[in-house]
Write a structure and sequence with these properties.
The protein is mostly helical. Helix content is about 70%, strand content about 0%. It has 2 domains: about 5-40; about 45-110, 434 Repressor (Amino-terminal Domain), CATH 1.10.260.
Length: about 110
């Protein structure tokens, strides 16, 4: 198991670049497959930027889905005021509440927590 192979630096660099390209292609294929299977979704840049800028994920995903606070609250089985308080940061919301909201929005619990 102590076999050693010596190759020129140029060949090593070429092989390493090819391996990185292959890894990128495999990641791309996995992402496309997840999208096709419905396991992942694309988020428009303006919504992604709102998340990156620290806006409430609950509000961003609610807006992305085109829901009002009242409709989201009804769908999730929570109070509309609770939705408003979580969106504004006045309350964090219990795990059960956040799980219900995440389910109603079709996102994971992690998507709603920062």
């Amino acid at each position: 198991m102590n076999d050693m192979v010596t190759i020129p630096r140029e060949e090593y660099d070429r092989l390493r670049a090819a391996a990185e390209d292959l890894a990128d292609l495999q990641s791309y294929d996995r992402a496309k497959a997840a999208l096709a299977a419905g396991d992942d979704e694309l988020i428009p840049a303006d919504f992604a930027n709102r998340l990156l800028n620290g806006e409430s994920p609950l509000r961003v995903y609610r807006d992305l889905r085109g829901l009002t606070q009242a409709v989201l609250a009804e769908t999730a089985g929570v109070n509309r005021v609770t939705v408003a308080e979580i969106e504004t940061g006045r309350k964090q919301g219990s795990i059960a509440t956040l799980r219900a909201l995440a389910g109603a929005l079709g996102v994971t619990l992690d998507d709603l927590t920062e």
